[in-house]
């Protein structure tokens, strides 16, 4: 069987198992609620469900997390001996208790609110970077 068609079957089965009807409109809406990049189109997700194309790795990760399956199982099937993803929790030792509480609260937010929080953080980071460029360390204005 073609790997794209096999993926489409696994995707549809995972959607059903998660309580979603495997239709392009449903997939487009639910995926774009969770994906922080450029939204996918109805035609793009239809191609995933019809077995015409495979999603990029970052999109596969979002699909797997949303549907509650392992990314490698979604992409390759249960027997696919490949490992996709990154180890989780590698940075836990460097995170303080207060930072963990903030992260837990953030992760408990609905996806739409997490996007807003992420945008605020990005705005602060951009402002900090531009401020650092205007006033480099040692210029007497820090």
UniProtKB/TrEMBL annotation:
This is Transcriptional regulator. It comes from Billgrantia sulfidoxydans. InterPro entries: Lambda_DNA-bd_dom_sf.
């Amino acid at each position: 069987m073609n790997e794209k068609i096999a993926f489409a079957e696994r995707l549809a089965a995972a959607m059903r198992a998660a309580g979603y009807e495997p239709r392009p409109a449903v997939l487009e809406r639910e995926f774009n609620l969770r994906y922080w990049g450029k939204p996918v189109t109805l035609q793009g997700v239809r191609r995933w469900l019809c077995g015409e194309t495979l999603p990029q790795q970052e999109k596969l990760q979002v699909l797997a997390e949303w549907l509650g399956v392992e990314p490698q199982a979604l992409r390759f099937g249960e027997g696919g001996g490949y490992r996709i993803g990154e180890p989780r929790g590698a940075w836990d030792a460097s995170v303080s208790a207060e930072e963990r509480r903030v992260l837990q609260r953030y992760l408990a937010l609905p996806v739409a609110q997490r996007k807003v929080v992420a945008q605020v953080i990005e705005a602060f980071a951009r402002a900090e970077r531009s401020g650092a460029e205007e006033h480099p360390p040692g210029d007497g204005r820090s």
